[in-house]
Design goal:
- The chain is mainly alpha-helical.
- It has 19 helices and no strands.
- The C terminus is likely disordered.
Length: 441
């Protein structure tokens, strides 16, 4: 039996065992949970392509292939352990949570002002970003569709969305544009459903269109796909179940959007339809896992372990210089001896391994799985209010990002957004409500 055949058999057994275990501990609505959506993303973007890439690279990077398979085994076991430690029958409680009606405790007269405040700040930051760009890529592309644009020009357009911005740090603007704006869309969606108000429906539609423009404005493919998935997740969590017909429609929609973007933006308009589908499938199933491969192959053979120096160091408050891990992997692994500039993001296990080695990485997977399930349980143990449901949808969507990027990058960014927005919307509403109540007395 060849190594390739043996690996395919082992991978198939691992996947079947893992899927059975996850459905057993999380239930049929697994996709609507934080651990469940991370799990699905990890399978699609990391696991499925890993045996093929491992074999094509000579079947020598044992740590990589073992780590990928262990994540699928450790995750359901750690979730089951968390359920036992917290003395909870998860499937029953989660089904009860999903079937419960969403309660709107924020009266429009008092809630609208905190919402407008958050929205106003978000829109101001977004407009500042666009006003300080030398060129908005999507506008330039649309105005020159008839004239034709070369592939290298398209690449420069995508790059200009970050390199031509000079007004401060771009990631600080992204907190509002990329992260907070979709959260406000979710709030407006839930408000429009619960109140059946035409005003909230209009707000939801306008914010959705603005977010779509924001997603495609820099000609990147990922943001618009993530936003489409977020809208479907919001609808399913609101309705309390997954609509499998809509899942099929979601997949068709994503493939259609990707096909259009590859055809018009990536310069693949001279290829056949079969070649286009092949390129898209390669991007989905191979790109992320190939990046992860180099995290395990380059450390410590080409560089010693980083011991925390690649982790976030905001404003330089810690006594170390940040190591640009994703850019280093891109230059020294994926695009060696190339003039292309970029970053090689992948699942969080790569970052942990590059910093602390294999044993710490395994322990981190266990802790990560238990924390994710702990937060999941805490959410569904609370009353299903509008704001808590909005934050829950947001956290479910956010959990998928751990299959794409570093653990600490996602955690510190999203927790910041969660806390600040919660304080403004929840406490702001309470302050206004209290003030109005006193005036009435």
């Amino acid at each position: 039996m060849s190594i390739g055949t043996f690996l395919i058999i082992i991978s198939s057994i691992t996947l079947i065992f893992s899927l059975f275990s996850m459905f057993n501990v999380l239930g049929k609505n697994m996709l609507l949970t934080m651990p469940g959506i991370f799990y699905i993303y990890f399978i699609i973007f990391i696991f499925l392509g890993s045996p093929i890439y491992f074999i094509n690279q000579g079947a020598i990077n044992i740590y990589y292939i073992v780590a990928v398979h262990l994540v699928l085994i450790i995750l359901p076991l750690s979730i089951s352990l968390t359920n036992k430690l917290m003395l909870i029958e998860f499937k029953g409680i989660f089904n009860t949570y999903l079937s419960a009606p969403i309660i709107d405790k924020q009266d429009n007269n008092h809630f609208i002002l905190p919402f407008i405040l958050v929205l106003f700040v978000t829109l101001i930051v977004t407009f500042l970003y666009y006003l300080n760009l030398d060129i908005i890529p999507i506008n330039f592309l649309l105005s020159n569709l008839n004239n034709g644009i070369e592939i290298n020009e398209l690449g420069k357009l995508r790059e200009s969305a970050t390199t031509s911005f000079k007004l401060g740090k771009l990631h600080r603007y992204n907190i509002f544009m990329v992260q907070l704006l979709p959260l406000l869309v979710i709030v407006a969606f839930l408000k429009s459903k619960i109140t059946e108000s035409n005003i909230w429906k209009s707000v939801f539609i306008i914010l959705t269109l603005m977010t779509i423009y924001r997603c495609i404005s820099d000609l990147q493919k990922g943001p618009i796909v993530e936003f489409i998935i977020l809208l479907f997740l919001a609808a399913w969590i609101y309705n309390g179940k997954i609509n499998w017909r809509q899942v099929v429609f979601l997949i068709i929609s994503i493939m259609s959007v990707l096909s259009m973007m590859y055809y018009y933006i990536m310069g693949i308009n001279h290829e056949t339809f079969i070649k286009l589908i092949y390129i898209i499938c390669k991007r989905i199933f191979i790109t992320q896992t190939s990046a992860l491969y180099y995290y395990f192959s380059l450390f410590p053979s080409s560089h010693e372990f980083l011991y925390g120096t690649s982790l976030p160091n905001p404003a330089g408050i810690f006594q170390f210089e940040n190591f640009p891990l994703t850019k280093w992997i891109f230059v020294n692994g994926m695009y060696r001896n190339s003039q292309v500039v970029g970053s090689a993001n992948s699942a969080f296990v790569g970052e942990i391994y590059a910093n602390y080695g294999f044993p710490i990485m395994l322990v981190t997977v266990i802790i990560f799985s238990m924390i994710l399930q702990f937060i999941q349980i805490k959410f569904i143990s609370k009353e299903r209010t509008l704001l808590l449901t909005a934050f829950y949808i947001y956290f479910v969507s956010m959990s998928s990002q751990f299959a794409f990027t570093g653990l600490f990058v996602v955690a510190h960014l999203y927790l910041f957004i969660f806390l600040i927005t919660a304080i403004i919307l929840v406490d702001g509403y309470k302050i206004l409500y209290g003030a109005c109540s006193q005036n009435e007395q």
